[in-house]
Amino acid sequence: MALRRMLGWSEGDLMRSDAKPCSKLMRQTATIFSIGGAFGFWVLCNLHYGPRTTTPRILRWAGCGAATVGPSTALLVRLFSPECEPQNIAAYDKGKE
């Protein structure tokens, strides 16, 4: 699924054996950016509503931020990371098959 080969950015080489596998890299990226997305949307909610901000509204905005930013960045990692090229997944990723 990596776009690197189609865009001409890939040489087709295997990565080093001590590098993180694609599944772990995607999971960590999604976790980190979900937290950041929740915090970012919390800030946007406070800027948008100002003093009319309520707790359910903040939680709704933070939930939407976490649900959109985390998976979006995980998808970008999957598409553009050299660890997620097919030859590296086949060689190093110990995911469920």
Automatic annotation (TrEMBL):
Ranges where the DUF7875 domain occurs: 1-95
Presence of the UniProt keyword Transmembrane helix in the record: yes
Cited InterPro entries: DUF7875 (IPR057197)
Top-level division of the source organism's lineage: Eukaryota
Transmembrane segments: 30-49
Alphabetical UniProt keywords: Membrane, Transmembrane, Transmembrane helix
Protein name: DUF7875 domain-containing protein
Phylogenetic classification of the source organism: Eukaryota, Viridiplantae, Streptophyta, Embryophyta, Tracheophyta
